[in-house]
Amino acid sequence: MKTKEIKGHLHEAYVPDSYPEAEMIQRSKDYFEWIDRRRTVREISDQPVPQEIIDNILKTASTAPSGAHKQPWTFCVVSNPEIKSKIREAAEEEERESYANRMSDRWLDDLKPIGTDDVKPFLESAPYLIIVFKRVFERDEEGKKHNNYYVNESVGIACGFLISAIHNAGLVTLTHTPSPMNFLQEILERPDNERAFLLLPVGYAEDEVYVPQLTRKGLDEVAVYY
Fold this sequence. Notes:
The protein has helices at 21-35, 51-61, 81-102, 105-111, 122-125, 151-168, 182-187, 219-222, and strands at residues 3-6, 9-12, 73-78, 128-135, 137-139, 145-147, 172-173, 194-203. By secondary structure, it is α+β, with helices and mostly antiparallel strands. Helix 2 (51-61) runs antiparallel to helix 6. The protein is globular, with a radius of gyration of 20 Å.
């Protein structure tokens, strides 16, 4: 491996993949068509999933770029039925409060086509729950705090990688964000430098699954070229 010292730190040579232009166009089109088939699925089977798949998915998420390469994330993987049950109970309590008192009428109307409610059976049926925690700061051996940088942005990118990797493995998930999520830190006994960011149930889809018939915004609605 070719290396070079830059500003007092060792760097290694990097050669990105390169393709003919026609192949680049086809690859970008193929990837879009593949990822466009990904959908949020709430009917998740209890069929076991090999842990090696989850390990590979998490390693993929960990390749995400992060501020100053601090990698400010912790992926908590829950398969223990008792812990999953506690998480469901606490999440549904927060969801009931949200649907009854926290969400505006407009918000509730916007959710109607999606068909969601405060009942979350997937939190127990899914063989794995991946709870992503953001690490707001680190502590050194003396207990002194050291801030991480661009934490929300970094963890958000890692979650994108994670969702793509789940789809690539042939599994399904959904982005669950009960608010507030402090109960996850308590149930999983996470340290004070971590905050729950996202909960992803992961598993195989049930034999028969229906998802809302939705359309995505067109390119002209989401992109502006200058």
